[in-house]
Design brief:
The protein is of the alpha/beta class. It has one domain: Vaccinia Virus protein VP39 (Rossmann fold, 3-Layer(aba) Sandwich), CATH 3.40.50.150. The chain is 39% helix and 15% strand. Strands 1, 2, 3, 4, 5, 6, 7 and 8 form an eight-stranded mixed beta sheet that branches. Strand 1, helix 4 and strand 2 form a beta-alpha-beta unit. The radius of gyration is 17 Å and the shape is globular. The termini are far apart. The model has no long low-confidence stretch (mean pLDDT 93). It binds S-adenosylmethionine. The site of S-adenosylmethionine has 25 residues, from helix 1, helix 3 and strand 2.
């Protein structure tokens, strides 16, 4: 338990209790550099929730949530179940602790599952019997990758992994991406990137154009790839005075 993980540091920032001393230490160092880190974590999570509600509103009933983390503050399956008790959710995370906690939370739920897998192994995710048993790849799926692609540097080919996942989806499926950028807060974010060198997931913040590339072949729904608080806000409180302070872009694309 000596090595901090991003999943657990994020859980701590969100007010969760599934974290250890090293994770809290990492989270506190992030807060030192970026005093509003807790607020930005919640803003990010709120984008995920709105994107899930959007997918439900256009009829999607299956979700593949990669880099799902520890389902502390609002889970995808809970949001989905309110709209349709039959909606199905497969969670995927690389962190064994996040997966173990998710497994406990999901015990006895026939419409949700969790597997431990690396997003850079898309065929292992798509071919996993638990995923295959729950999701029908011939029907539209919302593929959620929120606050996870910036944990994968280019040398691990995240673009290739996302392309394989997109290819496997049926027309009418959606890709939801939330991704950190250094563009609006360069000094803080370069320091945070350096700080994560010693964790299991060193960060790879990207520029707007680089994040847009993940959507290749998909049609971005309005308002496109924007600061996360600006993506289809549901109330005036969703949009802070300076949305760029979120330092995260969010967008949703549809497979034609
Ligand atoms: C910041 S959390 C985001 C959680 C959730 N998606 C959200 O937006 O609230 C990032 C998660 O991605 C997971 N992760 C990092 N690299 C991953 C990889 N290569 N494959 C799968 N999951 C990964 C981490 O373990 C962590 O749980």
């Amino acid at each position: 338990m000596g090595t901090a993980t991003l999943a657990r540091a994020y859980d701590y920032l969100l007010g969760g209790s599934h974290n250890f001393a090293a994770d809290r230490e990492l989270a506190k160092r992030i807060v030192t550099l970026m005093p509003d880190a807790r607020r930005q974590a919640r803003v990010n999570r709120a984008f995920l929730h709105r994107a899930v509600r959007f997918a439900l509103s256009v009829g999607v009933r299956q979700f593949l949530d990669i880099g799902s983390g520890i389902p502390t503050v609002g889970n995808v399956h809970e949001i989905a179940r309110k709209v349709d008790p039959g909606a199905r959710v497969a969670y995927v995370d690389i962190d064994p602790v996040a997966v173990a906690h998710s497994r406990q939370i999901l015990a006895g739920n026939p419409n949700a599952t969790v597997i431990r897998e690396d997003l850079c192994e898309p065929r292992a995710i798509l071919g996993h019997p638990d995923v295959r048993g729950l999701l029908d790849l011939d029907q539209p799926i919302a593929l959620l990758m929120v606050a996870v692609l910036h944990a994968v540097r280019d040398e691990r080919d995240p673009y290739g992994a996302v392309a394989t996942l997109k290819d496997a989806l049926a027309p009418g499926s959606y890709l939801v991406i939330g991704h950190a950028t250094y563009e609006s807060r360069p000094d803080e974010f370069h320091k945070i990137m350096e700080m994560t060198e010693s964790t299991t997931t060193p960060l790879a913040m990207r520029a707007h154009a680089e994040i847009l590339r993940f959507f290749e072949g998909f049609e971005l729904v309005e308002p496109g790839l924007v600061w996360v608080p600006e993506w289809r806000p549901e109330s005036p409180e969703d949009v802070p005075e300076r949305p760029e302070m979120s330092a995260n872009y969010g967008g949703v694309g549809r497979k034609p």
